[in-house]
Amino acid sequence: MGWTAIQKVLGIEAEGPKSLCEKNTATVNAELEFGKHAPYRKDFPSPNTLGPEKAQEVTSTFFQKITPEIEKRSGAGCDAI
């Protein structure tokens, strides 16, 4: 007996893999900004001073580099931006 059949027998609206994954997937929006005492803070006080394209590039590069560590520590799969 498959999962969908078990759900129907239990009187639960049957869900397939697609809807189960969609319900259990989260999106985290983030933006890189240098901390108060970070060396780059004096050159780039805010991502807004980089311009939108450069800010996106820096943020994307940063998250692509840290995604493997996030996955390792959390046990969750991540899609880098």
Could you characterize what this model shows?
- The protein has 81 residues and is an all-alpha fold.
- The chain has 2 domains: 1-26, no CATH class; 31-81, no CATH class.
- The chain has helices at residues 3-9, 17-23, 52-74.
- The longest helix has 23 residues, at 52-74.
- It is elongated and about 65 Å long.
- The two termini are 39 Å apart.
- 0% of the residues are buried.
- The model has no long low-confidence stretch (mean pLDDT 77).
What is the beta-strand fraction? under 5%
Number of strands: 0
Q: List SSEs in N-to-C order.
A: HHH
Q: Report helical residue fraction.
A: 40-55%
Shape, please?
elongated
Please tell me the total number of domains.
Answer: 2
Question: How large is the radius of gyration?
Answer: 20 Å
The N- and C-terminal alpha carbons lie at a distance of 39 Å
Stretches with pLDDT under 50, minimum 5 residues:
none
Strand count, sense and barrel status of the largest sheet are:
none
Please count the helical segments: 3
Structural class: mainly alpha
Overall pLDDT level: 77
Tag the structure with descriptive keywords.
single chain, 81 residues
